[in-house]
Specification:
Layout: E1 9-12, H1 18-29, E2 33-38, H2 41-55, E3 59-63, H3 69-83, E4 88-91, H4 106-134, E5 137-142, H5 155-175, E6 180-187, H6 193-206, H7 210-219, H8 229-239, E7 251-254
Parallel strand pairs: 1-2, 1-4, 2-3, 4-5, 5-6, 6-7
Helix pairs in contact: 1-8, 3-4, 4-5, 6-7
C-alpha cells in the first residue's frame, strides 16, 4: 500500500530512543524526510546514523530539549530552513516520575506539566502556520494508555497527559477546515527504556526480579506480551499518511487489549 508519505517533511520529537526513534524509522521507511531531535547530542547522532544506514533515507538531526521553548522554536526553524515546510508533527516526550500523590511537590507537578503538556503546545504552535498555509497537516501526539485507564503509581502521567487529549480534541475541531488532522496514540506496556525503568522500580519496591514484574504485566494483557516499539510506530505512520484522511480527534490505544473499558 502506498501511504503517500514520500517527500513529506516530518518532525518527530524526542526521537533518539524508544517510541520516538521507532516512529522516525517508520516514517523514513515510507520515504518521508524526517527530522529527529533529542537533548543528548551523542544519542541523537547515533540515532540519525542508524536510521540512515538501515533505511537509506534522509534524516536531519537537531539537538533540542522539548521542555525549552527556544529549543522548540529553533527545531522548527531549522526544519523549515532545510526542507521548506512541515507536513507531519509527532509530539513526544519522556514520562514524569512514578509515585503516589503524597510524593510530589508543586515543582514536580509543574515539571510534568512542562514536559508532557507544554512541549506539545509549543511544538504545535510553531509547526501550525506551515500546515495552515499548505492546507495539509498531521499532528500525532504520543500519550499513554493511562489516558484511558489510570495506573495508580503514575499519577503525574495520568493527570497531565489527559490535558493533551483535551487539547487534541479541541484542535481537531478547529483545524479540520485546513485539512489538518489531530490524533493521539496511547501506547500500553512497550519495551522502551521508560517502561524498563518503571518495571525496575516496581521490582525494587516489591523485592521481585525484573522478569517477574515483566511477566506479571504481561498476564494482564490479552495478547500475553509487551509490545515492541515498532508496533506503536506502525499506527503513527498510518495516521500520518494520506490513507488516514478521515480520522481526526481520535485517541487510539496500542495496548494488546489491556484497557478493559468499552470507550
Amino acid at each position: 500500500m502506498d501511504l503517500g508519505l514520500k517527500g513529506k517533511v516530518a518532525i518527530v520529537a524526542a526521537s533518539s530512543k524508544g517510541l520516538g526513534k521507532a516512529c522516525a524509522f517508520g516514517l523514513a521507511r515510507e520515504g518521508a524526510r524526517v527530522v529527529i531531535c533529542a537533548r543528548n547530542e551523542s544519542d541523537l547522532q547515533k540515532a540519525r546514523d542508524e536510521i540512515e544506514n538501515n533505511i537509506n533515507g534522509e534524516v536531519f538531526a537537531v539537538r533540542a530539549d522539548v521542555t525549552k521553548s527556544e529549543d522548540i522554536k529553533n527545531l522548527v526553524k531549522a526544519t523549515v530552513e532545510k526542507f521548506g515546510t512541515v507536513h507531519i508533527l509527532v509530539t513526544n516526550a519522556g514520562g514524569p516520575p512514578s509515585g503516589y500523590f503524597e510524593n510530589f511537590s508543586d515543582d514536580d507537578w509543574l515539571n510534568a506539566f512542562n514536559l508532557n503538556f507544554m512541549s506539545a503546545v509549543r511544538l504545535i504552535r510553531e509547526a501550525l502556520p506551515y500546515m495552515k498555509t499548505q492546507r495539509w497537516g498531521r499532528i500525532i501526539n504520543i500519550t499513554s494508555v493511562t489516558v484511558r485507564q489510570p495506573i495508580d503509581t503514575l499519577i503525574l502521567s495520568n493527570s497531565i497527559r489527559m490535558s493533551v487529549v483535551g487539547l487534541a480534541k479541541t484542535l481537531a475541531l478547529q483545524l479540520a477546515k485546513y485539512n489538518i488532522l489531530v490524533n493521539n496514540v496511547a501506547p500500553g506496556y512497550t519495551l522502551t527504556d521508560r517502561v524498563k525503568y518503571v518495571i525496575d522500580q516496581r521490582a525494587r519496591e516489591t523485592g521481585k526480579t525484573f522478569d517477574e514484574i515483566k511477566s506479571e504485566l504481561a498476564k494482564d494483557i490479552p495478547l500475553g506480551r509487551l509490545a515492541e516499539p515498532e508496533e506503536l510506530a506502525n499506527l503513527v505512520v498510518f495516521l500520518a499518511s494520506e490513507k488516514a484522511s478521515y480520522i481526526t480527534g481520535a485517541t487510539i490505544p496500542v495496548d494488546g487489549g489491556w484497557i478493559k473499558g468499552v470507550f
